[in-house]
């Protein structure tokens, strides 16, 4: 009887752990997409002139450019998905 | 600094020669893209120092060379750090970038920094500046860049905070690798702050305003003072060039009250060639002695 109760307790603990992990992972995913958005903003701010947007003095862009390959790639990616921003946002929040 | 044609180059030359005659080691540097020093000294000058008089060397900065050199450095760095260079087609952009607005004054800043570093042992570095618009942009560059870069710094810190949070949850890593963009931003802040400090410190940088006793150059000179004042840079001396017997000084005296003033008489013969320049200095020694001596006493670099 006691071992049966213990098994149930273990199962409940496992379920809680899994639930916690899922929740945490969902929260992190949301922060990750927020981070990606901020990195994109940073990319557009610094390297905007490369996609036709106003940007800081050229030397600031050029000084930082060698370290911003990731942001440049992200900007290119964002240009591809730019016509579907709502569907992108919905997928972040898991809305079908 | 001053309006085009007021005699900035000649004043810079006379100043340099005056100091060199007193045994100081002087380097005169032309930052004006339309160089005049080779014509004044009647010698071919380049970006390598050339002796033009005893104790006096001269350099003319090749702006295009500095832009090309800078872009080449950035390109090389990108080649080293990027893995998908060709995908961005950056080669095409770099051919166009050299014509971008703003790079002109940045090239002058790079040259200025290099000369300050390389010739720090000279007693005096005299810079012959470009006309008003480019010179104001030159002095404004550190302030303007700092506004942008501080804004970027705040955003970058926010990004790093978020990234650290994710790394800790996902990978349980306690040590986060250094963000290279943040390091570069911090380096740039350091560089621009130093440069701004150098421009603002009247003990390190003496800015001479050159004007003629006429309405147009006075009007532009007022705008120069306002422009410099907006970025916390003050004038050290006003040089009234091409003074004649009947020149009216009332407006100038009123406008620049409190700022040391040097009056340089009009020369009938063009001030070209070392002999003519030396004779002019000798003939006007008494008039020209007062203010430069003040500068000498303060010690300028």
Just name the CATH architecture of chain B: 3-Layer(aba) Sandwich
Instruction: Give the total of domains of chain B.
Output: 1
In DSSP terms, counting alpha (H) and pi (I) runs of 4 or more, how many helices of chain A?
4
The total strand number of chain B stands at 7
- Taken as a percent bin, the fraction of beta residues of chain B is 5-15%
Mean pLDDT of chain A: 80
Q: How far apart, in Å, are the first and last alpha carbons of chain A? A: 45 Å
CATH superfamily of chain B: P-loop containing nucleotide triphosphate hydrolases
Q: How do the helices and strands follow one another from N- to C-terminus of chain B?
A: HEHEEHHHHEHHEHEHEHH
H-E string of chain A: HHHH
Short description:
The complex is a heterodimer of chains A (96) and B (301). Chain A has 96 residues and is mainly alpha-helical.
What is the element layout, followed by pairings?
The complex is a heterodimer of chains A (96) and B (301).
Chain A: H1 2-47, H2 58-64, H3 69-81, H4 85-92
Helix pairs in contact in A: 1-3
Chain B: H1 8-21, E1 26-30, H2 37-41, E2 50-53, E3 56-60, H3 63-81, H4 85-88, H5 90-97, H6 103-118, E4 124-128, H7 132-171, H8 180-200, E5 208-211, H9 215-230, E6 237-243, H10 250-255, E7 261-265, H11 274-283, H12 285-298
Parallel strand pairs in B: 1-3, 1-4, 5-6, 6-7
Antiparallel strand pairs in B: 2-3
List keywords for this structure.
heterodimer, A: 96 residues, mainly alpha, B: Rossmann fold, four-stranded mixed sheet, three-stranded parallel sheet, 12 helices, 57% helix
């Amino acid at each position: 009887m006691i071992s049966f109760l213990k098994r149930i307790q273990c199962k409940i603990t496992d379920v809680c752990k899994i639930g916690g992990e899922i929740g945490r992972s969902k929260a992190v995913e949301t922060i990750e997409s927020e981070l990606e958005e901020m990195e994109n903003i940073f990319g557009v701010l610094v390297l905007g002139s490369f996609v036709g947007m106003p940007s800081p003095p050229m030397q600031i862009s050029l000084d930082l450019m060698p370290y911003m390959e990731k942001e440049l790639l992200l900007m290119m990616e964002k240009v591809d998905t730019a016509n579907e921003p709502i569907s992108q946002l919905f997928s972040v929040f898991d809305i079908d | 600094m001053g309006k085009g044609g007021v005699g900035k180059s000649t004043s810079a030359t006379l100043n340099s020669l005056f100091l060199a005659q007193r045994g100081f080691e002087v380097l005169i540097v032309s930052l004006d893209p339309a160089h005049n020093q080779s014509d004044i000294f009647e010698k071919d000058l380049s970006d390598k120092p050339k002796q033009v008089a005893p104790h006096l060397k001269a350099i003319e900065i090749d702006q295009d060379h500095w832009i090309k050199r800078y872009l080449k450095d950035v390109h090389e760095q990108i080649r080293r750090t990027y893995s998908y260079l060709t995908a961005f087609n950056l080669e095409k952009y770099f051919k166009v970038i050299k014509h971008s607005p703003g790079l002109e004054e940045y090239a002058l800043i790079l040259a200025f920094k290099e000369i300050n570093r390389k010739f720090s042992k000279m007693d005096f570095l005299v810079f012959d500046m470009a006309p008003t618009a480019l010179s104001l942009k030159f002095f404004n560059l550190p302030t303007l860049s700092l506004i942008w870069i501080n804004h970027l710094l705040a955003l970058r810190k926010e990004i790093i905070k978020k990234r650290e949070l994710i790394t800790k949850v996902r990978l349980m890593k306690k040590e986060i690798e250094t963000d290279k963009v943040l390091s570069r931003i911090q380096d740039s802040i350091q560089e621009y702050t130093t440069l701004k400090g150098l421009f603002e410190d009247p003990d390190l940088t003496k800015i001479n305003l050159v004007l003629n006793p006429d309405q147009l150059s006075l009007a532009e000179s007022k705008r120069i003072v306002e422009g410099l004042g907006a970025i916390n840079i003050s004038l050290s001396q006003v040089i009234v060039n091409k003074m004649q017997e009947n020149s009216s000084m009332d407006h100038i005296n009123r406008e620049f009250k409190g700022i040391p003033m040097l009056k340089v008489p009009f020369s009938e013969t063009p001030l070209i060639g070392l002999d003519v320049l030396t004779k002019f200095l000798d003939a006007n020694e008494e008039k020209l002695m007062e203010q430069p001596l003040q500068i000498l006493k303060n010690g300028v670099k």
